Fold this sequence. Notes:
Blueprint: E1 5-6, H1 21-30, E2 35-41, H2 51-55, E3 63-64, E4 67-76, H3 88-91, E5 97-100, H4 111-122, E6 129-130, H5 142-152, E7 155-159, H6 172-186, E8 190-193, H7 206-215, H8 227-235
Parallel strand pairs: 1-2, 2-4, 4-5, 5-6, 6-7, 7-8
Antiparallel strand pairs: 3-4
Amino acid sequence: MNYCLDVHTHTVASGHAYSTMLEMVASAKEKGLGLLGITEHAPSMPGTTNKIYFENLKVVSRQMGELKLLLGVELNILDYQGNIDLDDYLLDRLDVAIASLHGPCIAPGSIEENTAAVIGAMKNKRVNIIGHPDDGAYPLDYEQVVKVAKETNTILEVNNNSLSPNTFRQNTRENATTMLKLCKQYEVPVIVGSDAHIATDVGLHQNAQEVFDACDFPEHLILNRSVDVFLEALKKKTLL
């Protein structure tokens, strides 16, 4: 499959990443991507940027030569109700919003609590993608998550970085496999995110592809295959 986009990446603005925005853009162009998303960590993550950064993204062109640029955020899910850490007025200015469970921002709970947190975030009309739902530190009821993703047109991520042999996340391949089998059953699309924190990692998808192959996952449910298909998927976000 031709992977033509990557929408989960971080620059030096996130505090623990190592490349600038223009370095990430250059890497995306070099790899032939048609679309790049830069999604800095939201303010509750230690060391990241502040609200003013997101307010000022209006100054950045969304077209860099032939590369389309989406500027957004990786939100932190803050509690088991699914509350997040940017105000609606800021989210309305951004191009894409990922919501994720992160250790510094929410303690792992029970399966029921973690699942409620993710579902609560999916019910927010401004949340487009659930980031790395594979981390076994936050066990989830994947059938519930997949069903609500379908009902709300929220995109579930297959995080290439999570599937790396040196990942700090737990049981990621097993969890991604479980989720993908359910996505295949319920016809729920997914997106591969590199979660790149350095320019050389932009667009990486090999680890995710291995899991797709093992699951015999259908290509038509992988949104990275087409910029237009992905952008249409973003527009479909609905509420329960």
